[in-house]
Amino acid sequence: MSADDELLDETLRLLAAAGVEPEVATAGPALRRAHREAPLVLLGADALGSAPVRALPRRPGVVVVARADLPPAGWAAAVELGAERVAVLPADESWVLGRAGAALREPVERGSLVVVGGACGGAGASTLATAVALVAAGRGGSLLVDGDPWGGGLDLLLGVENAEGLRWPDLDGLRGRVSGEAVMAALPTVAGVGVLAASRSAAVAPCPEAVAAVVDAGRAGGWPVVVDLPRGPLPADGVAEAVLAEADLAVLVVPARVRAACAARVLVDGPESSPWSSARLVVRRVPGGLAPDEVADVVGRPVLAELAHDRSATVRGERGEPPPVGARSPAGAAARAVLGALSRSGAVP
Fold this sequence. Notes:
It is built from 14 helices and 11 strands. By secondary structure, the chain is of the alpha/beta class.
């Protein structure tokens, strides 16, 4: 979409060279349909401030094309629209060619979002979240986001606390749409899992806009995203509510004890915690504890999987060894059950 004839001609020439079929849109239903269905949307810089463009919803795969560097107001408009890049022609011709061809050849399916929380302290939510991310990474990588700024850092569970890479709050200034590739490249990575962990030197909760930008970047890049939320009632900062509202699956880890099950019931039913109302349960077995169906009866939610008792889990965690995720391991079996529920629901694991 552009009313700049010279820019439009140059862009159409590039698209023809890429072997793709362009559609020029102006306004009205045709624009909204094309914006919704096309694998790639190219917006001329001249159209950024137009009413039809400003009314469009955000989506992946939007590129702004221009004949000169944008002024600050133009950059602000591009960020507001969620553009992944501003391509200045002719300098960025080769990039536009490659991006157009990739959009046609390799459409990226949006990654799933799993949110994991614990009914009480020490429930094992962080272990399960890490295991889900590790199993999902075996299918092409995953993103593990630490939602608890006071939890000491999920990088400790993966043994990458000394690895180079960004943590919260290094990325707390993110806003709008950002590149998933850039986010993943900036994080410590182990076994295909990029982990955005809390900082141990600055326990500051990330803002909702930054969390939304990171999660959306991972999903837009096709990676499964797993968010580990802190236990207890949702904080007033809005982070947890926003993440839970977008989740394909919310999982609440409940130790098989009466108090833990009652605490889970409060989370599911409490007026301040309504986003957990659709959560599925993973019951962590404990010696002499309740049976899974008894936990389900107390909480009032179905049990998705059991996390079998693992006597070596504490020792491995203290050594910074990731939980084993083989098919017969307790964490691996529970993680596969979680990912299996995503597949059955139609979400992309």
